[in-house]
Amino acid sequence: VGAHAAFARSGRKMRLLAAGLLLLAPLCAAFYLPGLAPVSFCEEGKETEGCKSLIELFVNRLDSVESVLPYEYDAFDFCQDTEEKRPSENLGQVLFGERIASSPYKEKNNIKWASRWDYILESMPHTNIQWFSIMNSLVIVLFLSGMVAMIILRTLHKDIARYNQIDSSEDAQEEFGWKLVHGDVFRPPRKGMLLSVFLGQGTQIFIMTFITLFLACLGFLSPANRGALMTCAVVLWVLLGTPAGYVSARMYKTFRGEKWKTNVLLTALLCPGIVFADFFVMNLILWVKGSSAAIPFGTLVAILAMWFGISVPLTFVGAYFGFKEKPIEHPVRTNQIPRQIPEQSFFTKPLPGIVMGGILPFGCIFIQLFFILNSIWSHQMYYMFGFLFLVFIILLITCSEATVLLCYFHLCAEDYHWWWRSFLTSSFTAVYLFIYAVHYFFSKLQITGTASTILYFGYTLIMVLIFFLFTGTIGFFACFWFVSKIYSVVKVD
């Protein structure tokens, strides 16, 4: 309706464009996706083959606030329909684990067409809270940006100027700070295999999330079709195996790794295997309980076929090109003998820095997280994808700046073990996410029963793992760029 109104208000240029499109119409061909074609309705007595007057009511499930185990609408005697129909809508409906059926109950009301969405919008949290969330996130970003700008424009600039002015060996012995560790800062990390696998999977998740949210923000993924978002994410993840293999192989080669076969297999199987195993156990519980949310065995086989038939081969292709590339060149050489790290203060030790690093990124997302959890567990519709995409961008900036800030402090304290620390600093946000999910479970939900509790925390762990890989990858590459940049502009003998 809004599109037609906007078109009616358009000017002469739009009319000329429409006329041109009508002239080209015989030369064009178009089609609707299965189950997504619009349905036309007309007044009673004016029905045609493509226009019907009866609006059928379909239902999906029966559930309760005390359980996460939904059941089919006709699973009980009092909900039976003699003329049962089961229309097939789209793949998203199947992935979401729901089947829709006809309902024996009809409701007559006099709701006007222009007010048809009011009952949904009135049940949604007010958008003022969303704006508060955005302003809260922007304040955190401005604070971090100011800190980073002060370090880069003032402190770091002075450091580089002072280091480059030192020529004599006597003065060089008086050096201190991050320049002293130039011979160790690019020393390959321990367990570089695992780190490279995490980075490959994190890259895959990052690209998948960015494209999915961008399409949702543009309106391609309707909030009314809850399965469309999941379908888009799964399909994109399957098709993005190549970037995962490439990043993992290239970083593993940069870490001077030689077990390339193990690296490729772990990239293709480790994290997806953990997610699938968790998901299979959750689905098994739903099968045992007879819940309608249980995904059929055939759909699980189809997902496995997509994983091993498409994603794994694409990961091998990406790894092939990654290992063919040269390792990433570092701006300074690495000494053969590791430098001893001096005694660190409490705030420059690994664990306190990692714990502090996840607080600010979590502060940017916790309000949006509340609405997302409401959408998943309290059956509320989430439709503000514009807000979510903006918070997503703010999260990227916050993770990057917080990690760079802490990395600089640690390098100034002559601690050059930054590889894993940069990953864990931003990925610790996932730990706060899990703590918040536990708080949400006990304070907002009324779930009872062992099976429902296991399901809640099982699905939450999947979300935490995905968030762990995503945020860790963002922090790592931001820090990697920062460290490479500062050591490339300083003169080293």
TrEMBL record:
One of its GO terms (biological process) is protein localization to membrane. It is found in: Membrane. Keywords: Membrane, Signal, Transmembrane, Transmembrane helix. Its main location: membrane. Belongs to the nonaspanin (TM9SF) (TC 9.A.2) family. This is Transmembrane 9 superfamily member. It comes from Apteryx owenii. It comes from the Eukaryota. It holds the Pfam family EMP70. The keyword Metal-binding does not apply. The keyword Transmembrane applies. The chain crosses the membrane at residues 131-153, 197-221, 227-252, 264-288, 300-323, 354-377, 383-411, 423-442, 454-483. It is a multi-pass membrane protein. SUPFAM superfamilies: MFS general substrate transporter (SSF103473). One of its GO terms (cellular component) is membrane. Residues 1-30 form the signal peptide.
